[in-house]
Design a protein that fits this description.
With 292 residues, the chain is an all-alpha fold. It has helices at residues 2-7, 10-25, 29-79, 86-109, 112-131, 133-143, 146-177, 185-232, 238-282.
Length: 292
């Protein structure tokens, strides 16, 4: 389904280019009407396929969430049946209720998302290179700086996400260990720390989005300037410039989705490692007291 969606991505761009060129050349309206009908049919097929893909991969993700919760619960209950300390119960609550869900949901899109968005990206870039290689270099120049600042900012996000999980586990343990205590000093400190970590993640995430959007606007500016010069000098058609602007929009969305997928993959990898380590630690048999 991912292959069908990204395989149809460049068809609307080519139809737009032909419609604009036919209109400027005084082509027949019947041809333009036919192209518009094909555009609508391709959009319908692509949209329905994407709908089925989204439903299916979320179904896969929810099944993984359920299986992971069941596995964690069974593993801890079997190996710690004689040890139900507050720490064990608090961490178990956090593992099953909160930490399993993002890991399982990511599995549903782990393969489909990079295949879909990467396929769209390569298809549109290849189409641009075919139409006008020089203008395509402008698009590549827009993307290239993001290979530097995206991984650096993501690394900082991962550190904060990992620290937040550890803090929230401490919150769960404190609730189980002292259920009568309501927001004592240590608990309030944990809340404040979680707040600061979350705000740090938001600042990095939205700063990354700002930089990516700004690079996209630079790309549109470059396409308009260079494409306009080519049209004036008869080196390309107006429809090509329109196709490039639409193509840059088509690139921006999958590129942003790929960055989001990469961000989620790195965070989920850290979260899963924490789950694995916690289950391994909790599943250790309780030390036996020596008889007196």
């Amino acid at each position: 389904m991912s292959a069908i969606v990204f395989g149809l991505t460049t068809v609307p761009l080519e139809i737009q280019r032909r419609v604009v060129n036919d209109a400027f050349r005084g082509g027949q309206f019947s041809t333009i009407l036919l192209l518009a009908g094909i555009y609508l049919a391709v959009s319908l097929v692509s949209g329905l396929t994407k709908l089925a893909l989204n439903v299916y991969r979320n179904w896969v993700g929810e099944n993984v969430v359920r299986d992971l919760r069941t596995s964690v619960d069974q593993k801890i209950r079997i190996d710690t049946s004689q040890r139900k300390a507050a720490e064990t119960e608090g961490v178990e609550i956090s593992l099953i209720v909160a930490e399993s869900e993002p890991v399982g949901q990511f599995v549903g899109s782990a393969v489909a998302e990079p295949m879909l968005q990467g396929g769209i990206l390569l298809s549109v870039l290849g189409y641009m290179v075919y139409l006008q290689p020089i203008i395509a270099l402008v698009v590549l120049a827009v993307l290239s700086p993001q290979f530097v600042f995206v991984p650096l900012m993501q690394r900082a996000i991962n550190k904060r996400a990992t620290a937040r999980i550890v803090i929230l586990r401490g919150v769960s343990v404190a609730i189980v260990e002292h259920p009568a205590a309501f927001c004592d000093r240590k608990q309030r400190q944990r809340f404040d720390t979680a707040f600061e970590l979350n705000m740090g993640i938001y600042k990095l995430k939205f700063s990354m989005n700002f930089l990516m959007n700004f690079m996209r606007q630079l790309g549109i500016c470059g396409i308009l300037a260079l494409g306009g010069w080519f049209v004036i000098n008869g080196r390309t058609e107006i429809g090509t410039v329109v196709a490039f602007i639409s193509g840059l929009a088509e690139i921006n969305d999958p590129w942003g989705d790929l960055v989001a997928w990469f961000r989620d993959m790195r965070v989920v990898n850290a979260k899963y490692q924490l789950i694995f380590d916690a289950v391994k630690d909790l599943a250790q048999p309780a030390p036996q007291e020596e008889p007196r």
